[in-house]
C-alpha cells in the first residue's frame, strides 16, 4: 500500500498493483564476536538512495481515493505504483515537506522513518518490490570478501534525503552516523572504518567531518572512498526547482508539475545547486525570453518561476555551502565523457511550467565535471580513478561497474595500486 484506495483507483488506471508494506528493520548489531581480520565498511547513499517508510493520520487528502489514515508503516520511497497519473497526487501529498519559520517538517499528520539504519537493506534495493537495485551489487561484492558480514562489519547509514545537513533532521543524522561508527568500531575490536559515500552522501560526509576532531578521525576512520561526489553542486538541480526533474519521462506518464511540488519542498535540492565558487557571475545557467540567470540570481529565478518561498529556503543553507578538506585519506572515483546538463534554455511561454531545452557539457550524466573534480583538492588524496562512458561511469551505472566494485574491494583490502596524479591534476581554480 502506498497511500491510495486500490479498489477505487483501478477504475482510473489498469496499471496499478499493491505495493508491499513491511516493517523496517532497526538494524542493530547483536553483541557477538566479530571477525577482526577486515576493516568495517559503512556506506552513505546519495539523494533518493534510502528507503523511506511512512504512516499518517490526516484530516484532508488531494482526492477521494487517497487514504487519509494509514496506521502502520508502509512504503513511501520508493513505490513505482505511486508515480502514475492521479495516484501521484496522493504520494506527493505525503512526501512533501512544509517550510515554516525557517524550518522544514513533515506534512501535518505524517510520520516518516528510514528503513534498516545500520543494516544494508535500506540502500541495496530502493523499492521493496525489488525493481530498483541501488547499492546491491556493491554490497554483495564486499560481502563476498571473507570476513565481511552484512549488518556486522558491512553496514549502511540511510537518511531522510529530503533534508540538508544543517537542518535539525540532518544534524540528528550526523549524530546517529557518529554513534554508528563508534558502535561498529567497538564491536569489531577497534578496527577503523572504510567510509564509502555516493553522490550527495559525499556532501553529508564533508559536513560530518567538520563536526569531529582530528584525533577522532585518526582513531575511527581508515579511509574515505568518494564515488560520484557532487562536491560543487549540479546544474541539473536547477531544472528540478523550476520545472520539475523527471529524467525525460513523457508528461503523459509522470506529471512534472506534481513532481516539482515535492522537489521544491526538499531542502536538499537547493543544497545541490551549483556553487558560486565554481560557476562565475558572468556564466548564465538559465536562459529565458525575458531574462538570464547566473549562480548569483537563484532567488530571482525562483521568484520569477512563481515560487517566492525559494528565496527564504536558500537562506537555510548558510554554513553548509563551503568546501572544507575532510582531513582523512581519500580515494576518489567518478565517471566522465557523458553529456551532462550545463545550461537550460526555456522557449517563449515554456517558462516555468514546461521542460526546457538542455545544453550539455562534460560530466557523468548528472554531476558536472568541475564539481566531480573538486576531490582533487583534498590534501590527503591517495588515489583518483575516472571511468569514461555511459556504460562504465554514468552517475548511477558506476555502482554496477564490475571494475569499480573490484577496485573498491581492492582498496578496502589494501591491494589496490594507486595512480599518481600529474601536477596539473590539482590545478583547479576555486
Structure description:
This protein is an alpha/beta fold. Helix content is 27%, strand content 18%. The protein has 15 helices and 15 strands. The chain has helices at residues 6-9, 87-95, 121-124, 136-143, 168-187, 201-210, 214-220, 236-242, 256-265, 267-271, 298-304, 309-315, 369-372, 390-393, 402-412, and strands at 41-44, 52-57, 69-77, 97-100, 103-106, 110-114, 154-156, 193-198, 221-227, 286-287, 292-293, 330-336, 340-345, 357-361, 381-388. It has a six-stranded parallel sheet with strand order 7-1-8-9-12-15, with helices on both faces. Strands 11-10-13-14 form a four-stranded mixed sheet, with helices on one face. A three-stranded antiparallel sheet has the order 3-2-6, covered by helices on one side. The chain is globular and about 60 Å long. The chain starts with 5 loop residues before the first helix and ends in an 18-residue tail after the last helix. Mean pLDDT is 88; it is low at 5-33 and 420-430.
How are the strands ordered across the major sheet?
7-1-8-9-12-15
Low-confidence stretches: 5-33, 420-430
Order of secondary-structure elements: HEEEHEEEHHEHEHHEHHHEEHHEEEHEHH
Strand residue percentage: 15-25%
Cα end-to-end separation: 48 Å
What is the helix tally? 15
The SS-based structural class is alpha/beta
Q: What would the principal axes of the Cα set say about the shape?
A: globular
Please bin the fraction of helical residues: 25-40%
**Overall pLDDT:** 88
Query: What is Rg?
Result: 21 Å
Report on the biggest sheet: 6 strands, parallel
Q: How many beta strands in the DSSP annotation? A: 15
